[in-house]
Write a structure and sequence with these properties.
The structure is a single chain. This protein is of the alpha+beta class and about 190 residues long. About 50% of the residues lie in helices and about 20% in strands. This is Cyclic nucleotide-binding protein.
Length: about 190
């Protein structure tokens, strides 16, 4: 099992001691996930926090008409999970699916809580990561209510240029809240200017 990516991730926030690294090795489990494999589905309780080592994932909601709405993408060194279900232990309304063959590291909720108690540094690290995620979600909500679809697309491409080769236009359109056809129109307009 290659735990080095998660050690590097945590160490970039706060340097780790040997005993903290050893604790990580005991609680994180590596999984290899195939493209299109679901690691969380609606109705399940999210019992694992997931760190992406290799690959790409999407988290999405399916409405009553069967339409998918992408909420989040995650690539290397990103976390993905239904944080509401993870903390409340209530059934999730979301799906998490691999867009590519992937390698992930997962930690159980109780193991994460034990890390917080036994190694307080991890409590601080997870707080920083959670606060950053909250800021990102707030920016996205504000952008969705105050920006045009073209502005949202341009911002998405500026912030995440590496997604354009890994995520289909249909997936990007769903994330932006537009139809694939409308996204195509936006892309053609931008290409002409």
């Amino acid at each position: 099992m290659n735990i080095e990516p998660i050690i590097n991730y945590f160490s970039n926030i706060l340097p780790l001691k040997r005993e903290e690294i050893d604790a990580l090795k005991k609680v994180f489990k590596e999984r290899r996930i195939k493209r299109r494999q679901i690691i969380l589905q609606e109705g399940d309780i999210c019992m694992l926090n997931t760190f992406v080592v290799e690959g790409c994932f999407r988290m999405y909601f399916v409405n009553e008409n069967g339409k998918e709405h992408n909420i989040q993408f995650a690539v290397e060194n990103w976390w993905i999970g239904d944080i509401g279900s993870f903390h409340s232990e209530e059934p999730s309304k979301l799906y998490i699916e691999a867009i590519e063959n992937s390698v992930i590291l997962q930690i159980k909720k109780q193991d994460q809580l034990d890390l917080f108690v036994n190694y307080p540094k991890f409590n601080r690290i997870f707080r920083v990561f959670t606060e950053n995620a909250l800021v990102s979600y707030q920016k996205r909500v504000l952008q969705n209510i105050s920006s045009t679809a073209e502005e949202r697309y341009l911002d998405f491409m500026n912030r995440y240029p590496y997604f354009s080769n890994r995520i289909s236009n249909v997936q990007i359109a769903s994330f932006l809240g537009v139809t694939p056809e409308f996204l195509s129109t936006i892309r053609k307009k931008i290409a002409k200017s």
